[in-house]
Amino acid sequence: DGGITQSPKYLFRKEGQNVTLSCEQNLNHDAMYWYRQDPGQGLRLIYYSQIVNDFQKGDIAEGYSVSREKKESFPLTVTSAQKNPTAFYLCASSMDDKQSPLHFGNGTRLTVT
Amino acid sequence: AQKITQTQPGMFVQEKEAVTLDCTYDTSDPSYGLFWYKQPSSGEMIFLIYQGSYDQQNATEGRYSLNFQKARKSANLVISASQLGDSAMYFCAMREPWVSGNKLVFGAGTILRVKS
């Protein structure tokens, strides 16, 4: 079955450590996205990529980094520079046209203490 | 500036009744797409329905329909015959291909609770 896989589901880190969240898709989608969700709030865009080896900052990119070396993969690194990293992180992919919905992974809940 | 506004933080509806979740948007892009997603307590995001800015008819998908009023810039989601499983967070989202590179911008969401 095609889909988006995010791993791990839960992640715990100490403050000051970088952590990388995995996102893999086998839907052959061109575009991939990372969103952050805080409790009771909407989704905010961190980074997105419309093509391999290219990506753009979203609304809250500070303290995060990404890479897009393969079409299937779009890992997100939460660096120690991110002031409030504890959140629910959602990865998504879509065909790169305005009609195509985003398909989401099941998310990674990151807790930094 | 707020692109997507969902003014109802929370809504209650009686089982089997219809409910309307409000969404207004702001854009200068003549070509845009509007989406509704459902997020149950498990956290997954489920795509419900899509409306294109040039679509002549309101979109429908099973019990979901979209009341699209372009002049008012509103795209309200109507859920008919509510079920207990409809209890979830609902998000309205917009894509503006020309203005902002095809990314999807989300509203703050509305929590819907269906009462038995």
Report on the architecture of this protein.
The complex is a heterodimer of chains A (about 110) and B (about 120). Chain A is mainly beta. Chain A is about 0% helix and about 50% strand. Chain A contains no helices and eleven strands. Chain A has strands spanning about 5, 10-15, 20-25, 30-35, 45-50, 55, 65, 75-80, 85-95, 105, 110. In chain A, the strands form two sheets. In chain A, strands 2, 4, 5, 6, 9, 10 and 11 form a seven-stranded mixed β-sheet that branches. In chain A, strands 1-3-8-7 form a four-stranded antiparallel β-sheet, with no helix packed on it. The mean pLDDT of chain A is about 95. The model of chain B has no long low-confidence stretch (mean pLDDT about 95). Chain B contains one helix and twelve strands, in the order ββββββββββαββ. Chain B is mostly beta strands. In chain B, a hairpin with a 2-residue loop joins strand 7 and strand 8 (about 65-70). In chain B, the strands form three sheets. In chain B, strands 2, 5, 6, 10, 11 and 12 form a six-stranded mixed β-sheet that branches. The interface between A and B is medium-sized, with 26 and 23 residues.
